TrEMBL record:
The keyword Ribonucleoprotein appears for this protein: yes
Protein family membership: Belongs to the eukaryotic ribosomal protein eL18 family.
UniProt name for this protein: Large ribosomal subunit protein uL15/eL18 domain-containing protein
Organism of this sequence: Wallemia hederae
GO BP terms, alphabetized: translation
Amino acid sequence: MSKVNKPPLSISKLAYLSKNYPQAKQGATIVNVGPVTDDNRMLEVPKLSIAALRFTNTARARIEAAGGECLTLDQLALRAPTGSNVILLRGKKTAREANRHFGFGPHKHKKPYTISKGRKFENARGRRKSRAFKV
């Protein structure tokens, strides 16, 4: 898959989402279609069973230290071939920095691709009321 379709999820987000799913309390496996990253703001990681495309080294170490397990998607397919007792999650696709630039035309609250924010950069017609921009 392309990078857009496999957004990362942090272990803090996985822990938060697992609290809201009643199936997760019965030992369901959480599946993420992208990488699982560490979040050092989270002090204690709960015991979770997670299957993902990839794990960062620190995320894998913290999950296994908490008594959880990190599975590959192949291992998950052997364990739950029908997909029962599995929770599918995906990170936020619009969290990329590139998404801030999307939107057509001026005054669409999009972030401009500029070198700088000075007098000479993206400040002419279409950016100021004094410059008479008529469409």
